[in-house]
Amino acid sequence: WKKKNLISFVLYPLTIFTFIFNFLKKLNYKKNFKIKTICVGNLNAGGTGKTSLSIELNKLLSKKFKTVFIKKKYSDQKDEFNLLKKRGKIISMIDRINSLKIAEKKFDIAILDDGLQQKNIKYNLKIVCVNSSEGFGNNFLLPAGPLRENSSELKNYDIAFLNGFKKNQKLKNKIKKINNSLKIFDAIYEPTN
User: Fold this and answer.
1) Packing angle of the helix pair 50-61, 78-87 (nearest 10 deg)
2) Measuring CA to CA, how many Å separate 70 from each of 39, 78, 107, 166?
3) Which of 52, 130, 131, 138 has its CA 20 to 30 A from that of 190?
């Protein structure tokens, strides 16, 4: 997935299914909520630092607001759920919309750990995390590449965090070509334990 190669070109025709699936999701009506929503997501499959950034946002915002994490319930993401639960209140259901309906009754701000590809929610702030070393890989959609949605979707987001040890000006330039008004921040995560 890092570079274009024979396997990625063989799989490329299958990306039409990812493209169609994403297109159909955009046709959904966007639901507004009374609660302010911050979605921390990514374009790539795999770790880009979403959960760590969500925790940091919660640490800052919970000083002045009643905050809650929204995490879609997946059986293979119990570690992330437990990590968020240790750092704040969390609502985790299969449907993010149902989680937000519960959250808006008690909280001021919902921080969604993942969910940028859920197009039927109108988020107040959309943050995309990118691994600063890997960027968008070969820039192909799944399964030929690492992208869950096309990198052109960056034009719909507000903030980008480039997470990792590498400062990547080339990646920043690529992102700015897609969305010049996107605010870009560099972040490094250091293990504490």
Assistant:
1) 20
2) 9, 14, 11, 30
3) 138
CA 80 distance to own-chain centroid:
14
Reduced to 3 states, what is the DSSP secondary structure of residue 180? coil
Residue in the block written with tokens 């009506």: 29
Phi, psi of 131 (to 5 degrees): -70, 120
Q: Which two tokens stand for residue 24?
A: 């159909």
For the chain, give the number of residues: 193
Q: Evaluate if pTM is beyond 0.90.
A: yes
Q: How is residue 75 written in tokens? A: 């059986």
Q: What are 71-130's pLDDT values in tens digits?
A: 999 888 788 999 999 999 999 999 999 999 999 999 999 999 999 999 999 999 999 999
